[in-house]
Design goal:
Blueprint lengths: L1 H4 L9 H6 L2 H15 L2 H9 L7 H17 L2 H16 L2 E3 L6 E3 L3 H22 L5 H17 L11 H13 L7 H11 L8 H13 L3 H6 L6 H17 L5 H4 L2 H10 L6 H10 L6
Antiparallel strand pairs: 1-2
Helix pairs in contact: 3-7, 3-10, 3-11, 5-6, 5-16, 7-8, 7-9
Length: 289
């Protein structure tokens, strides 16, 4: 009863739930990860943790669990997940071997780029695969996600206040040459091109990676060595249109991500399996209550 009374910072009527519940929007996370990896100081921090050498896909899954707990969890769960993210970030700092610049995972400049990639990619894939949001809905999603950003120590005052301003900021970062597709960034791409056997959604990840690469800004796409001719562009348009048409026909267990399905089960008086709790424990979410 107490858990049902606490629907976290957003809740089922929020745009954040409406957007993040969709599996096709989750696929847009691949685009966000590729854009984040193209920032040499962001990827330097990931490289420091040994992300690519030690079970990279499991680490990526843990990151997803933490991120979606902030959206779908209770306020206590959201804070616990944010605390875990902040705890990890506090240990990541040093000098980047590629650029010679200093990096710090709690640097607001880097946090802003990571956040912007997530918001922009979610909105883009919502538009391409769902298409329910109008401009007001997109703006509301952006403003809701500022709450999540503050939980992971990104000051609200440095976030561009509107969706067009956020996208203008991102275009400026790309155009002024702050991004660089390094060997580490290419290893991230390999996670999607050649996912390990234990990766969830492995059968569809290659297709997801093609959609992710196709929607990158042209300069970044070229950096990753991706060429899109007229035939491939037409194919991508057809794929997105087909996905948008097919999505409402999919069963809920395929259409919606696990945290949203958990909530739907609880609405029917059914408790999710113990696997859910165990997954959160593995992600490092601790509730001191």
């Amino acid at each position: 009863m107490a858990r049902e009374a606490d629907l976290g910072y957003f809740g089922p009527r929020s745009v954040s739930w409406q957007v993040h519940r969709e599996v096709t929007v989750l696929f847009g996370g691949a685009r966000a990860v590729l854009m984040q990896a193209a920032h040499p100081l962001v990827i330097a921090g990931a490289r420091e943790t040994g992300f690519y050498e030690r079970n990279p896909w499991k680490r990526l899954q843990r990151t997803l669990i933490l991120t979606y707990t902030i959206t779908f969890g209770t306020k206590a769960e959201a804070h616990a997940a944010a605390d875990r993210i902040n705890e990890v970030h506090a240990r990541i700092k040093g000098i980047d071997d590629v650029t010679g610049k200093r990096y710090d995972a709690l640097d607001p400049v880097l946090l802003l780029w990571v956040h912007a990639c997530l918001v922009d990619s979610a909105l883009l894939f919502e538009e391409l695969t769902v298409g329910k949001l109008d401009d007001a809905g997109r703006q509301r999603f952006h403003e809701e996600q500022m709450i999540a950003a503050e939980l992971v120590k990104l000051p609200r005052e440095i976030i561009p206040p509107t969706v067009p301003a956020l996208r203008a900021y991102m275009a400026d970062v790309v155009e002024r040459g702050d991004l660089l597709v390094t060997d580490s960034a290419r290893r991230v791409a390999e996670l999607f091109y050649r996912p390990p056997a234990e990766a969830e959604w492995r059968p569809v990840l290659k297709g997801v990676s093609r959609l992710a690469f196709a929607t990158l800004p042209p300069r970044l796409r070229e950096g990753f060595g991706i060429r899109l001719g007229p035939v491939k562009k037409a194919g991508m348009r057809v794929t997105f249109a087909a996905t948008r048409l097919a999505r409402p026909l999919l069963p809920n267990r395929v259409r919606f991500i696990a945290p949203y399905q958990e909530w739907r089960l609880r609405q029917r008086g059914i408790e999710p399996s113990a696997e859910v709790t165990e997954a959160r424990k593995r992600a490092g979410i601790r509730l001191d209550i």
